[in-house]
Amino acid sequence: xxxxxxxxxxxxxxxxxxxxxxxxxxxxxxxxxxxxxxxxxxxxxxxxxxxxxxxxxxxxxxxxxxxx
Length: 68
Hints:
By secondary structure, the chain is an alpha+beta fold.
């Protein structure tokens, strides 16, 4: 049986900066292209991250992720 962590890593993510699509792929693939950790990609999809990013001065310029 697969752990939740393994399932999260196999999930596909779409990473955006504003309206621009940066990358689509697994957490590892996106992290490699953006030079960040896979956990950061997963964190971007959490409700906490979405609240924090919405409070920014320019929320249209921040990096956001959607789990597909």
